[in-house]
Amino acid sequence: MNKPSFDFKTAEDAVRGIDLSSQNILITGCASGLGRETLRALSRRGASIIALARTRAAAQQALDNVGARGTAVACDLADLQSVAKAVEAVLALGIKLDAIVASAGMMAGRSLEKRNGVELQFQVNYLGHFALINGLLDALRDGGGRVVIVSSDAALKQAPKEGIRFDDLSGDRSYKVFTFYGQSKLALGIYAAELSRRLAARKIDVNSLHPGAVRGTALNRSLTFPLNLVLKVAALFMKSVEQGAATQTFLAGNPGARGTTGRYWVDCHVATGSKYLDDRAMAQRLWDVSSRLVAQSSDELTAR
Hints:
This protein is an alpha/beta fold. The protein has a single domain (11-295), classed as NAD(P)-binding Rossmann-like Domain (Rossmann fold). Helix content is 41%, strand content 13%. It has helices at residues 11-14, 33-44, 56-66, 80-91, 120-135, 154-157, 177-198, 227-234, 241-244, 246-253, 280-303; strands at 24-28, 48-53, 70-74, 99-102, 114-115, 118-119, 146-150, 205-210, 264-266, 269-271. An eight-stranded mixed sheet has the order 3-2-1-4-7-8-9-10, with helices on both faces. It is globular, with a radius of gyration of 18 Å.
């Protein structure tokens, strides 16, 4: 099979000259970094943006800063109850979504933090997005809808050798910040591959991607010395935010990406990711465990 490839260097290049005025596109993490640049590029082509950030005020500011039309929604991915409320708010708009861009992400500090009984990076980067996207599946447009999931090559280079550590999602036994960051990004890639299979009959494309090492994002805001100092030096050799957002903007809004699903992308090219992206048994187990964790949170909310 020929691998699709495109030569777009920036987010603006990826959708230049394309009319997106009929498109409703949801973006997480829109208050900063890659999410904000994706919002800017897509809204400049006319797309209506459902902007998600940890607070509604931050999401609204992101819209206002670029004069984008759309709706601001609060969604704290660290809090599954906040995610559930965000799903309700988006569904209440009564619109069809042409694309969902799961762009939000974080890298934790060296000390273990947990939410809902799981390690924080797994919660924010993966589980919150799993709950959000699955809650919005009925709102996705059949025959052309897209789900774009920002993973990372950390899924290949830093995740546990065994894939997902199902017996230690809390991190209590073996926490290492970069290993668990890689695990969260691997989970996103596995989820994208599985979701593409589940949505194939509806002709909804689902792809994951590595944006590259990007300077000027809030991803590493929790890193402490000496890692934060190392990052400042490494930033000299990293992509700009405009460059880093190219692939996700392309996958969300360019007609050239339509019809390609279940793939992993780097620099607007289909690439080879972790071997676990094709592991259907691991994908099914991850789906089941994730569904159970989300359901537990829902039960706790109902009990209050």
